[in-house]
Amino acid sequence: MQNLFDLSFTKFVSPAIAKVVYILIMIGLGLMYIIFVVAAFASRQPVLGFLVLIVIGPLFVLIYLALARIGLESLIAGIRTAENTAELVRLQGGISAGGQGYPTVGPQDPYGRAPQAPQPYGYTPPKGYEPPTTPSS
User: Fold this and answer.
1) What span, in angstroms and rounded, lies between the C-alpha atoms of 93 and 29?
2) Can you give the pTM of this predicted structure?
C-alpha cells in the first residue's frame, strides 16, 4: 500500500493490485450479466430473455473477461520485463532505474579494465590532438 504514495516511481504497484482488479472486473461483469438477464425478462418477451440468458450474456461476459485478462497480462509482462532489465543492468555494473549519472565500466569487466567514466558523446580525441586554427583576416 505504501507503494501507492511513492512519488519517485521506483516500485511498481500494478503487479500487487492486478489480482484485485481482475476479481473486481469479474464481479462487475457478473452483476451486469444478471442485470441484462433480468431486464430482458422484464421486457415481457421470453424469447429475448432466454436469448440473453443463454447466448448473448455469456458471450458478452467471456469476450470482455478475455480482453481484461489480456490487458492485465500484457501490463504485468511489460513490468516484469522492466524489472528484469533493471536487474541485468545492475548485474553488469551499470546503474538501474532510479540511479543517477551514467553507468561506468564495472569491476567485473571481462577485459580487466579499470572503471572509467564515459566520455561525452562517446568520442575522445587522440593524445596530442590540437584543433585546427582559423586564419585571421
Assistant:
1) 47
2) 0.59
